[in-house]
Amino acid sequence: SGVVLTGRDEGRAREAAAALNSRAGAGARAGAARAYGVGCEVSDADSVAALDEAAAEALGGPASAWVCNAGTNGYVYRELLEMDPAVVGEVIGANAVGTLLSARQALRSGARHVFLMEGAGSAGEPTRKYAAYGYSKAGYRQLVGSLNAELKALESDARVHALSPGLVRTAMTSPGDDAFGSTGRFFVNAVAEEPAAVAQFLAPRLVAVAAGGCAADVEESQLARVLGGLQAQVRGHERIEFLTPGRLLQKVGRRLALGENKDRFSVEDEEAFRAAKEAAEESR
C-alpha cells in the first residue's frame, strides 16, 4: 500500500516522495504505507499507461484511487490575442487532454474512485488573461457527470468525484501579482491559501471517500455529517470544496473590516509593489 506521486519531472516527484517518507520517520511500522515518485506526461496516453504500470508494481496492485491534479496556466497571464500558441497547447494538453487520459486509464485499470481537480472557470465564470486555463476547467463538472453516467450504465460501482481547492498560492498564481494590479493582489491576499492548508482540508476527506465512506465523515458536527452524507447520496458522487461561498465572503469581510492578511503574499500598494519589483530585478 502507499501513494504514488507523479509529474513531468521524475526527479522532483521522487524528491517529494522521499520527503514524505522521511517525515514518516524510521519508526514507521513494518509494512507501513510508503510514497513513490514516478515521472509522467499526462497528455501522452503511453506515458499515462506506463504510470499505471509503475504504480501497480510499487503498490503491489492497481491503485484504488486516482487524483487527477495535473494542470498549468503556462505561468503567464495575458489576453488570448497575445498568447503564444505553444502555451495554449500546453495548457489544454495538461488540463483537458491529460485529465481525460488519466481518468480513462484509472477506470480501465479498476480504480474505484477518481478525483478531478476543479479550478478557476469550473463554474463558467470568466477568466480574463488566462482564458485557456478557464476554458479547460469549465468542462470538469460536465465530465464528472458524464463519466458517472457511463459507469452507471456499465453497472460499475466506481465513481468520479470533484475536488475544489479554491485559490491556492503557488508559482502558477504569482505572475498574476503584476498582471492584475493592486485589485488582484488585494483579492489574492484576502482569499488565497498556502498549499499545505488546502491539503490538510482535502486529504482526510478524500481518504474517507476512497475508504468507502463519505467526505462528511470527518466533520466534527453530527449535523454536518448527516447533511454532507445526504448531499453525496443525492448527487451520486462527492464534491469536496475548500473555498465555499461562505468561507469566501468571510475572508473578504475580515479583510475589509479588520485588514486581515493585508500584504500577506504581495504588497498591495502599486507604488510600493513597483519599487520592490525593481529592487528584486536589480539584485539579480
Automatic annotation (TrEMBL):
GO MF terms listed in the record are: chlorophyll(ide) b reductase activity
GO terms classed as biological process:
chlorophyll catabolic process; PSII associated light-harvesting complex II catabolic process
Output the Pfam families linked to this UniProt entry: adh_short_C2
Identification of the protein by name: Uncharacterized protein
